[in-house]
Design goal:
373 residues; alpha/beta; Aspartate Aminotransferase, domain 2; Aspartate Aminotransferase, domain 1; seven-stranded mixed sheet; three-stranded antiparallel sheet; 13 helices; 12 strands
Length: 373
């Protein structure tokens, strides 16, 4: 899994186009750059790809979450609901933005439980941050119904799910705002980098102002002459990242298609193994196939399964600490249902480029691990 697997002449050409002009900053220097604005181009093309009104490039997926939370202008100190199973950056961004993260259980889709959301909503809740985990969308229709009933904002964390969809609509476009990550292990990568999307012009402006020290980016006025529009900080994307994004976005459809084919080929070989179950999907047709997640009868069996995989040259993904335990250390709570699901799960990364030899190695390792239970 990752756009880094398909780095090639296209990325080199885009980056060279920036370097030969010598302007790595996303704003200004119009004469030197000769009209080339790679971040702006990436933003426009990404917005078109996911069918969003506006897109703002930032320095990382974590930055995208922080910028979006600030752009929403919610009252500080209030509660924001988010899943207990997510990369720790989701929780960190909520705290960094001045809110209290309230964790919710996940369900069998490995995404946030809408039933637990209903239980956790309080008079202090102002927002829900659902996370589309491990390449697959959560069921957004039910979550949006809850948000509307309770007049809550929705910020989608789609950092692990670029290109995925739910019922034909790209994730990140259901809520008030959406966030994406393009770090080195994502389905498309700019090394580091992220994107904030929204259909609201006002929310876009608030995000744009905030991510660049409060600059309003007024046409015909130099940066030094602008007056501060609001509180802000520096979360800008640079032109090298933008250039890589332009090249990678053109490859995203092919990357996802390859991953889906590779996952399909593996799953077909192992799907009838007794005692082996698979992750549930809200919309399997819309996933991007970054992981194949299997479930067995308990933690001891899962641990033995993983050890046998390692002994046969296949290393399963490590998810429980930085995606679960660290979140509880920060925000508190007890989540036995989520822990039980995670304890008996085994996730394998699906690469974009997988030859017949590797596919066979994986399927044989899984069969041996299942037999050893």
């Amino acid at each position: 899994m990752a756009g880094r697997e398909v780095f090639g002449a296209e990325e080199m050409e885009q980056v060279t186009d920036v370097l030969k002009r010598g302007v790595l900053f996303r704003y200004g220097f119009d004469k030197e750059r000769g009209g080339v604005f790679k971040v702006r181009q990436f933003e426009q093309e990404f917005a078109g790809y996911i069918n969003s009104g506006y897109a703002l490039g930032v320095g990382s997926g974590s930055a995208a979450l922080k910028v979006a939370l600030e752009a929403l202008n919610l009252p500080k100190g209030k509660e924001i609901l988010t899943p207990c199973f997510t990369f720790v950056a989701t929780i960190e961004s909520i705290e960094e933005a001045g809110f209290k993260p309230v964790l919710c259980d996940m369900d069998e889709t490995f995404n946030i439980s809408t039933e637990d959301i209903k239980r956790k909503i309080s008079k202090n809740t102002v927002c829900i941050v659902p996370v589309h985990m491990m390449g697959s969308a959560m069921a957004m229709d039910g979550l949006l119904d809850i948000a509307r009933e309770n007049k809550l904002k929705v910020l989608e964390d789609a950092c692990q799910c670029t290109g995925a969809s739910f019922k034909g609509r790209k994730v990140g476009t259901f809520g008030d705002m959406g966030c994406f990550s393009f770090d080195y292990v994502k389905v498309m990568t700019t090394g580091e980098g992220g994107m904030v999307v929204t259909d609201s012009e006002e929310l876009y402006k608030q995000a744009e102002f905030y991510h660049d020290h409060g600059h309003p980016h007024l046409a015909g006025l130099g940066r030094g002459d602008e007056k501060r529009a609001r509180k802000g900080f520096n979360y800008r994307m640079n032109e090298i990242q933008g250039a890589l994004g332009v090249a990678q976005l053109k490859k995203l459809g092919d990357i996802i298609a390859r991953q889906k084919e590779n996952k399909k080929n593996i799953k077909e070989e192992i799907q009838n193994i007794p005692g082996l179950d698979f992750r549930t999907f809200a919309d399997e047709s819309g996933e991007i196939a970054t992981f194949l997640t299997m479930l067995v009868g308990g933690k001891d069996k899962a641990d033995r399964f993983k050890e046998t995989l390692k002994e046969n040259g296949i290393t399963p993904a490590t998810l429980n600490y930085w995606h679960f335990t660290a979140n509880i250390e920060i925000a508190g709570g007890s989540f036995p249902k989520s822990k039980e699901i995670l304890d008996r799960s085994i996730s394998l990364e699906i690469k974009t480029i997988m030859g017949k030899e590797l596919l066979e190695k994986i399927t044989e390792a899984v069969k041996k691990a299942a037999k050893a239970l």
